[in-house]
Design brief:
By secondary structure, this protein is mainly alpha-helical. The protein has one domain. Strands 1-2 form a two-stranded parallel sheet.
Length: about 90
């Protein structure tokens, strides 16, 4: 079994998302031109599964986040929230 941890992926989910208060998200806070394409994400997942990798962490943020999470788990959540708010 392979567990995939993609970075932001270009899907329509943000167009259907809601804010914590229940209001529609509206405009995406993410810089869409810097988001991974769906086909690239799928290719990486299939490649990892073919190699029988246990985990596939995509993107530098995810890889760095794994190490930070070992030391300060709550910090990763705060960093992720800040990145979303800033659109990165």
């Amino acid at each position: 079994m392979t567990i995939a941890y993609p970075d932001f992926v270009m899907t329509e989910i943000r167009q259907r998302a809601f804010c914590p208060g229940g209001q529609p998200l509206g405009e995406s806070p993410v810089q869409e031109e810097k988001v991974m394409q769906v086909d690239e994400c799928a290719r990486l997942i299939l490649k990892a599964a073919g190699r029988r990798k246990r985990e596939e962490v995509m993107g530098l943020r995810g890889k760095v986040g794994q190490w930070i999470k070992l030391i300060a788990p709550g910090l990763v959540d705060r960093i992720a929230l800040r990145a979303i708010e800033r659109g990165r």
